Amino acid sequence: MTGTVIFDPLIPWPILAVVAALSVGGVVLALWRGLSGWALRGLAALVVIGALAGPVYQIEDRAPLTDIVLMIEDESASQTLSDRADQTAQAADQLASVIEARDNTELRRIRVRDSESDEGTQVMTALSEALAEEPRARIAGIIALSDGLVHDIEQTPELPAPMHLLLTGREDDWDRRLIVRNAPAFAIIGEPVTLTLRIEDSGAAPDSRPLAPLELSVDGGEPERFDLPVGQDIELPVTLSHGGRNVIQFSVPAAEGELTDRNNTALIQMNGVRDRLRVLLVSGEPHPGGRTWRNLLKSDSSVDLVHFTILRPPEKQDGVPVDELSLIAFPTRELFLEKIEDFDLIIFDRYKRRGILPAIYLDNVTKYVNGGGAVLVAAGPDFATADSIFRSPLAPILPAQPTARVIEERYVPEVTELGERHPVTSGLTTDEEWGAWLRQIEVKPRSGQMLMTGIDERPLLVLDRVGEGRVALLASDHAWLWSRGYEGGGPQLELLRRLAHWMMKEPELEEEALWAEASGQTMRIIRRTLETEIGPVTVTNPDGSTVEVILDEVSPGRYEALYQGPEIGLYRLREGDHEAVIGLGPAAPKEFERTIATDEIVGPVLADLRGGVIRLEDGLPSVRTVREGRPAAGRGWIGLTPRGAYETRDVTQAGLLPPWLVLLLASGFLLAGWLREGRR
User: Is the pTM of this model over 0.70?
Assistant: First the structure.
C-alpha cells in the first residue's frame, strides 16, 4: 500500500493562477496600508486557493512484479563445431539454476537456430521478437551464449537493460577456408576465364603451412591438382569446354586440427556461351524469303553473318560488258575450302547448281557436316529441278529426296506428334489458327525426324543428325508469309530462331537432355526426350548415397520432379546414358564463412550498456545485482539490474479539505482579521 497527494483542481490551472495572483495583490495592498489583519486575510485566501486546487490523498494497492532475464542460446550451425554445443548446453543449464534461484526473478530461454535461407545467425532478430512479447520495464538483463558470429547485428533493438555475451569456443581454435573472389555467371566457350582464389587461415593457425593443395573439377570430372600459397590471392584460368551450365568445384583437403572442412569447398555454376555465332547464308537468287533469313540473323547481335547471293547468274546474256558491272566477286574458294570450319551454320536458301560452286566445294560442305558442322536447306522450286543441290555431293547428307513435283496450293502447316515433343517445334501451336502457305516441294523422307507436315501430311520440316553434324530441310520457301502477317501470320520468327539454334547445338534445344534447376535446397529435375517412356532418375547425394526419383510428364516430351536435397553440395543425376550435375546451396554457407569465435561483432553493442564479454572456457561467471547506470560486468561476474516493476490492483482517493472545514477556516480567518482591525 502506498499513498501520495495529487491535485484535481475545481477550475482550470490558469484561472486558479489568476485568483492566486489577485489574492497576493490584496494581501500586499493591506500590508502597504498598514492593516493589522493582513496576515489573517492572507491565510483565508490561502485556504480558499488550496480548496480550489482540489488536493486528494490517493492510496494504491500495489503488487510487485518479477524481473525478467532473457537468455539467448545460439544453436546455429557454427555452434556445432568443436565442443561449442556442449559448452552452451552446460552453461545454459547452470545459469538457469542460478537465475531461477534469485528472488523475484523469471528466466526466458530463447533458442536461435539456422534460418531456412542462408542468412546466418539471427540473434538480434530473435532478441527483437522476444522483447516485443515482454514488458520492457521488467527486463533486468540479457545473456547471450554464442560464438559471437552474429549476422544481423544491424537489427539490434534498443536494449532496456545490460546485455552480456558468454563466448563459446577456444583460444587455440583455427580454421582454413577457400574463397572465390570473382566468379562470372557467363564465360566464352574455349577461352580461359580468370578466377581469383584465396586460401585463408584464421585463428591460432600453425605457421608451418606455406602451401596448400587445391583440386579443381568441372561437371564432376577428373580433378586437376595445384599447390597454392596460403594467404595470397591467386589467379587461376579455367576453360569451359561446352555450352550451357558448367559446374566447377574447388576443394582443399582438410588440414589436421582445423575446426571444419565445410568451408574448404567452393561450387561455381557458370554458363558457357559462344563468343560469336558465324553463319554463312548462300542465296540462289533474290526472293521475298531471302530478306526474312537476313533480318532474322542480323537481329541477333551475337551472330556474324556472311551472305553469299547470286545477283547475276552466269547464263544471263544482256550484252553488258563485265568490266562495267559493279558486282563484287565472292571469295568462294576461301569460304568453302579454307575457312569453312570457322562457320557454325551454313544455310542454302533456294540455291541450285549453276557452276559457281564446283563439286569439290560442295563435297567439302559434306565433310564439314560429318565433322560436326550444320547445314540448313530452305527449298524452293529449284530443289525439284535437274539443277537441284540434291543432285550434287550434298545428296548423302540430305534427309529427304525431291520427287520433281512442286505443289502450288494453299495449306496450313501442322506440327506432327513427334514435333509436339521436339524442342524446335514444341509449344508453337496455340488456339489461334496459323496463316496459310502457298507452295510446297514434294519430298520423300529418307532419314531423320519429320516435325512438320503440309499438304496431305507431306513432309515439310525434316531434321537429321549426320556424323557429328546436323542437317535440316524445310520443303517450302513461303515461311516469309508468316512474317508479313498473311491470313494472321504465324510463329515464323520463333520457329526459324529455334531451328537455327538447334542446328548450332545450343544446349537448351537438345531433344534428349537431362538437367536440374536449383532453388535453395530443392532441385527441379527435368528430362526432355522424344521417347514416350523414361526410367527413374538416379540421384547421387554428396555423401555417396543414391535415391531413385520418378518423373511425371508435364507436357509432351518433358518430364519433371522435385527433389529436396538433404545437404549442401554437389549432386549427380543419371537416367540411362544421360548424366548431369548440379550444386545445391552455397558450398560454404554463411555460417561457415567465419568460424573463429569473436566478440568483435557484438562487443560494441554491449559496451553502450556496460555489458561484458566472458569466455566460457575460463569458467562460468557469477551473477550479481547492480544499480542502473553502474558497470554491469567485471572479471568473472555479470550483473543484473532490478527494475522494481509493480502491478496496481486498486486505487482509492480521499479529499484532504472537506467543504465544511474550508468554510470554517476561511470564515474564521476573515472574522479574526475583521475583529483585530476593529479593535484598532
Answer: no
Say how many C-beta atoms besides its own lie within 10 A of residue 544's C-beta: 7
pLDDT digits (tens, 9 = 90+) for 600-648: 999 888 887 788 899 999 999 999 999 888 888 888 899 999 988 777 6
For residue 381, the one-letter residue type is: P
Is the domain of 553 the same as that of 493?
no
CB 665 within 8 A of CB 47: yes
Give the pLDDT confidence score for residue 330 in this predicted structure: 67
| Phi and psi torsions of 98, nearest 5° | -65, -45
CA quadruple 338, 504, 464, 424: dihedral, nearest 10: -160
Question: Is 591 within a domain?
Answer: no
Q: Are residues 324 and 447 in the same domain?
A: yes
Domain count, the chain: 5
Question: Are 540 and 574 a contacting pair, CB within 8 Å?
Answer: yes
Separation between Cα atoms, residue 253 and residue 176, nearest integer Å? 10
CA nearest neighbour of 367 among 396, 388, 408: 396
Distance from C-alpha of 290 to C-alpha of 301, rounded to nearest angstrom: 19
CA dihedral 203, 204, 207, 208 (to 10 degrees): -100
What is the distance of C-alpha 529 from the center of its chain? 30
The pLDDT mean for the chain works out to 85
Q: Please write the tens of the pLDDT for every residue from 299-345.
A: 767 778 888 776 655 555 555 555 555 456 667 788 888 888 888 89
Domain boundary among 274, 304, 321: 274
- Spatial separation of the C-alpha atoms in residues 402 and 384, rounded to whole Å: 6
**pLDDT tier, 61 (very low <50, low <70, confident <90, very high otherwise):** low
Contacts for 619 with CB less than 8 Å, ≥ 6 apart: 636
Average of per-residue pLDDT across 428-444: 87
* pLDDT value of position 208: 62
The Cα 140–Cα 623 span in angstroms is 12
Taking alpha carbons only, the member of 430, 450, 454, 451 closest to residue 442 is 454
